[in-house]
Design goal:
alpha+beta; Ribosomal Protein S5, domain 2; Alpha-Beta Plaits; 4-stranded antiparallel beta sheet; 9 helices; 12 strands; GHMP kinase
Length: 321
């Protein structure tokens, strides 16, 4: 068998910004976590010509060209994408495909990993560092944005997500979240983010989310997440048409709350929404109580992920997690 490297990179939930810069002196900040069962999986090997199979071909070709030029690699490559996180639904597909390609290429050519620098090189991590940080380790991650002279956002906390808890994802099967030039324009035209709102969000993170994770207090965790999401959703509502991008997702989330879920919100620009439950059985009960998905939506129950990406190098028979 020829030498190859397979990368498995998890999707991530973005639970909210801590701040949005009002000037060049301010920093973004974020809280979020990687999740199980939704992931990008690709295999890369040397080849005589460039071959890319599966989803995200254009992105992958561009990333490989950029990385090879940066690293001085002349060899063509074959890339096979087995699974890809769906694009523009709020689960971090762009960052994860970029760092998967970078890690695969570096591992194949026996170069040390440099996840943060590669992500920046490939145009990722300009606002949130959750996806980059989730490649290395899992858990609930808090980043404080980029410091002066820093290339990637600084991770200031990681706390394991309770193994029993579950996340109920609600997906809109016909809508995408804002992205590209529309996203850039939204940040450009929205009013300054109130400093008082940032202070409130930071208090929710420090005094509620973080201790609730350590204490495994789902109710307190859920209240804090929902409070943050209300502030963030209200701020972005002029750009996305409401607190939630998708009315279908919003309606389903409120039904989940009535059935016992907590901590509803929207990941990034959506349209994917989420809620939390105490266990797999509780999540299944809640979903069953609302009668399952509504037309135009899909529901998936997932666990949080307390580990980073997986790298398997066949030539070395080496598995890293």
């Amino acid at each position: 068998m020829s030498e190859s490297v397979t990368i498995k990179v998890p999707a991530r939930l973005h639970l909210g910004f801590l701040d949005i810069p009002r000037s060049g002196q301010d920093r973004f900040g974020s809280v979020g976590l990687p999740i199980q069962d939704i992931e990008t999986v690709l295999t890369i090997s040397r080849a005589t010509d460039i071959h890319i199979h599966g989803e995200e071909q254009a992105r992958i070709a561009q990333h490989i060209a950029t990385l090879c030029a940066h690293l001085g690699i002349k060899t063509p490559h074959r890339v096979s994408v087995q699974r890809a996180i769906p694009r523009h639904i709020g689960l971090g597909s762009g960052t994860q495909i970029a760092i998967a390609v970078a890690a695969g290429l570096r591992t194949l050519h026996a170069l040390p990993l440099d996840t943060a620098q590669d992500a920046v090189l490939l145009g990722r991590g300009s606002r949130s560092g959750i996806g980059i940080a989730a490649f290395e380790e899992g858990g609930v991650i808090v980043d404080a944005g980029k410091g002066f002279g820093q290339q990637a956002p600084t991770v200031i906390s990681r706390i394991p997500f309770p193994e029993a808890w579950r996340i109920i994802l609600v997906l809109d099967t016909a809508t995408q979240g804002m992205h590209g030039e529309a996203e850039i324009e939204a940040f450009r035209t929205l009013p300054p983010f109130p400093a008082a709102t940032s202070a409130l969000i930071c208090r929710h993170v420090l005094m509620s989310i973080m201790p609730a994770l350590v204490e495994q207090d789902l109710a307190s965790f859920g209240r804090a997440v929902e409070a943050i999401q209300t502030e963030i959703g209200t701020y972005f509502s002029p750009a996305q048409g409401g607190v939630f991008t998708s009315r279908l997702v919003e309606a389903t989330l409120h039904r989940l709350v009535k059935a016992g879920a907590v901590g509803i919100g929207q990941s990034s620009w959506g349209p994917t929404g989420f809620a939390f439950a105490a266990s797999q059985a509780d999540a299944e009960r809640i979903v069953g109580e609302i009668g399952g998905r509504s037309p135009g939506t899909a529901i998936q129950i997932v666990a949080g992920r307390n580990a980073g990406a997986e790298i398997t190098h066949t030539a070395l028979n080496l598995a890293r997690a």
